[in-house]
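Collaboration report, partner site 2.

Our partner group contributed sequences for two proteins of shared interest, and the home lab folded both. The records are reproduced in the order in which they were received, starting with the first partner submission.
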Amino acid sequence: YGICEKKSKKDKRIKLIKQANKGVSFARNLGIEESKGDFIVFVDSDDYLEDTAIEVCNNNIKDNDLLICEIAYIVNEKKIYIPCKLNGEYTTKTLLESLNNRKNIKLAERINSVCGKVYRADIIKLNQIRFDECISIGEDLLFNIYYLEKIKKIKWIDYAIYNYYKNNIYSCTNDYKKNKFMELNEVSNSYERLLDTLGDKKLFDIVKYIRVKNIYSCILDLFHEKCDLKFKEKLKYIKNIKNITKRKVVIGKGFGFFCGSIIYSFLPEFLLLLICKIIFFYRSFRLNIRKGDIG
């Protein structure tokens, strides 16, 4: 806060707002209301932009409604950037068609986040697009879905302006969320409604991929230290997820998606729980190594 305060005193274009912590969605919505410029960019507190980010965005946005830039990931203080080769101009439908390709389907996760993107303020404000303050996960994707419904021209550039600290142990994305599945399921349903409006059932591979990833994320959370469910309650939780997502999870494209959907669809709950337990402890082991590096 001190750094921001000093900057705001030196540059009158910077407006510093001090408030009680009411969550990221409230803070972003307030930022939208207070914004005066033509464009809006979101940056999380633990990440940072390249020095040339705004210049690059200004040179590329032109008459487009949305500019998507690449993201570099910082892992153990090392920057990792893999070009996605999706640079070009799109409509909402042609972009989703490109992401629906088996080679690109993992890149559909880039739609999940508001980071590394430039939005038009007038489109956001005119259509009253805001972050849902009642949910604590998936709010970025929901915001993007509402925005994609209202725009015509999208540009994707192969340039990483955004640096994201992946698996930051201090990030709020590592928190345990009790209602995580219900919130993510509603976001997936909203994604399906967007695809329905485009009238192309072939695009549903994207939301199926995201739904499977979300399901595994929720099951892995059953081993979080803050989860107080007993073994039988965890099995019941998984069974409930299966009942809700029945006929919504199908065998997917790509080896990882294919294996994940097969395991989820056909293994009994206790074996699925066992597999996820192994995955969770493997991830925890890697995270503990990183904690040691940070400490």
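Second partner submission, folded after the first:
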Amino acid sequence: RRRLPGLLQGVLEDIPNAKAVWCAFEPNAFDGLDVNFSQNEWFGRSGRANFMIQREGANFRRSLELSDKDMNAVDFYSQPFQSGNHTLSEPTLRDFDGGPLFIMTLSIPVRSNGKIIGVLGIDIDLKPIQERVAKVRTTKNSSPILVSNDGLIIQADNKDIINKNLSVVNAKMERLQDVLSAIREGKELIFYDYSVVLRDEALRTYAPVSIPNIGTALSFFNMTPRSEALASATRLTNNILVAFIIGLVAIALMVWFLVARIVKPIIAITERIQDFANLNFNPDPSKRWLMDYK
């Protein structure tokens, strides 16, 4: 147990865009020595093996946040523990030393002899993903937006709408319920609608960010001015067909971007955390490219 801080810090060093890593175990499930660590500075009154290491700039520090917390009352522990599945939380805006950041918590159940005895989790900083989404342009004036499953806007060109819900920002959108349903269900969607942001009829394309073993984590959608979307097809009479084809191409480009720039890193992080959940703390050279994902 005394090796926990060093082991968890090694996880953070392996994954640069992680802000914190933690573990929490059922009473006496870790080593059967909770009573020996009760009233301990780091393990609280119960002595349970609940521990967290946080990143602060180039340094790391121990956190007492989980020491005496009722873990069964928090979703990031109870959901993976009860379901036995990997879970990825809704993004939340949290304050860190460098300012507020959107964080998603990846939680993986820890098993011993087939029985779940606890959960290992990591808090992932979404800033690298936000920066990559901001650079995506299907046309000169297109506008990319990243939202959570609950419709929370994580990234947008208009900074005033970040951390607001899509249902509030686009309250007057005719197909708002279709959009919210597509996001919740992880479905693709293509349609035309007027965009207040672009001040033009816009081709809206929605694509889910799906993570293996987890499901839809986020949704990425792009608004392209109708005039730009149909610029090369203004002389064609079947604009509906053209718009549909353009929409499919836009979604294909979005899916390629999502897989290459968002899904792949999260899969790699999930695989590393699964290693740690299996108590395998050996370095994995095949994941070294994560060190350059900033």
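Feedback sent to the partner group on the second submission included the following. The first strand starts at residue 18 and ends at 25. Residues 234-263, 289-294 have pLDDT under 50 and may be disordered.
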